[in-house]
């Protein structure tokens, strides 16, 4: 594996050293998520993958792409799952494939400005989608296509969700591929209002806290309003007196996941 010089000193994303970095209590719940890397154009993207072992390996399954937030960046291939640990175990109640990539931390890369899913200030009130995403997002897109090609994935039941920086990533992916996903849950993120018209046919459930001090709640409100104005019907949940953590309450709710897995693209 051709690691960059910056990543060579980082924890091994394929074989974590639990003697040096002991397993956290929350990680035990996710021990069935296997370790992988995706390499392209001289870059390495760590990711974790879940495939149910108790299901016929040929059975076609829905897939969830999980996009973590800025605080979970790194090269350990572990931190990106931290907020799934408190989630309702949807991968057990709804047999599926789960992909969870990890964006590099700024200190692990030659170009720190590219160590994001989406290049926009989190506290900004608007942004325009760049034609070319930063390399971590480019590798996520390539990983998504590779996973679909090499696994029994139901292309009519692809789902994407993410929080904070990953909420921005969720909007970004929907804007770039408005016909790919059967449903999406962007949490405390924001999108490009110019693309609202492209999203009218996608089942969306958007979440934000009204007291968010990191990502303005207007980012979600504005996207929802723009999609409705264009003819869409997104569902929006705004938590009263909740700051930036609007994901714990969302992901721990089994009804949210029931909504997700009930969605299927029209044939």
Structural features, described:
The chain has a six-stranded mixed sheet with strand order 1-2-4-3-5-6, covered by helices on one side. Strands 7-8 form a two-stranded parallel ribbon. The chain is globular and about 50 Å long. The chain has a single domain (28-261), classed as 3-Layer(aba) Sandwich (Rossmann fold), CATH 3.40.50. It has 267 residues and is α/β, with parallel strands linked by helices. 40% of the residues are buried. The model is unreliable at 1-8 (pLDDT under 50). The protein has eight helices and eight strands.
Order of helices and strands: HHEEEHEHEHEEHEHH
Please give the number of β-strands. 8
Question: First CA to last CA: what distance?
Answer: 40 Å
Strand proportion: 15-25%
CATH architecture: 3-Layer(aba) Sandwich
Query: Which geometry do the CA atoms define?
Result: globular
- How many domains make up the coordinates? 1
Query: What composes the largest sheet?
Result: 6 strands, mixed
* Strand order, largest beta sheet: 1-2-4-3-5-6
Which runs of at least 5 residues are low in confidence (pLDDT < 50)? 1-8
């Amino acid at each position: 594996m051709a690691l960059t010089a910056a990543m060579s000193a980082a924890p091994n994303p394929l074989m974590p050293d639990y003697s040096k970095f002991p397993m956290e209590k929350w990680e035990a719940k996710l021990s069935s998520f296997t370790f992988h890397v995706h390499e392209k154009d001289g870059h390495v993207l760590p990711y974790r993958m879940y495939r149910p072992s108790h299901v016929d390996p040929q059975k076609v399954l829905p897939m969830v792409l999980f996009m973590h937030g800025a605080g979970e960046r790194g090269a350990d291939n572990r931190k990106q799952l931290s907020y799934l640990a408190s989630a309702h175990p949807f991968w057990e109640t709804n047999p599926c494939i789960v992909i969870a990539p990890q964006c590099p931390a700024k200190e692990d890369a030659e170009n720190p400005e590219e160590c994001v899913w989406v290049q926009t200030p989190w506290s900004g009130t608007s942004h325009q989608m760049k034609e070319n995403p930063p390399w971590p997002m480019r590798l996520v897109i390539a990983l998504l296509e590779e996973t679909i090609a090499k696994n029994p994935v139901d292309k009519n039941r692809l789902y994407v969700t993410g929080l904070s920086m990953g909420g921005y990533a969720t909007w970004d992916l929907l804007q770039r591929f408005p016909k790919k996903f059967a449903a999406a849950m962007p949490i405390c993120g924001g999108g490009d209002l110019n693309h609202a018209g492209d999203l009218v046919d996608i089942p969306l459930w958007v979440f934000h806290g009204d007291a968010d001090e990191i990502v303005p709640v207007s980012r979600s409100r504005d996207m929802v309003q723009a999609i409705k104005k264009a003819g869409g019907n997104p569902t929006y949940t705004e938590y009263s007196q909740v700051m930036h953590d609007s994901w714990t309450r969302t992901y721990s709710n089994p009804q949210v996941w029931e909504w997700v897995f009930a969605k299927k693209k029209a044939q």
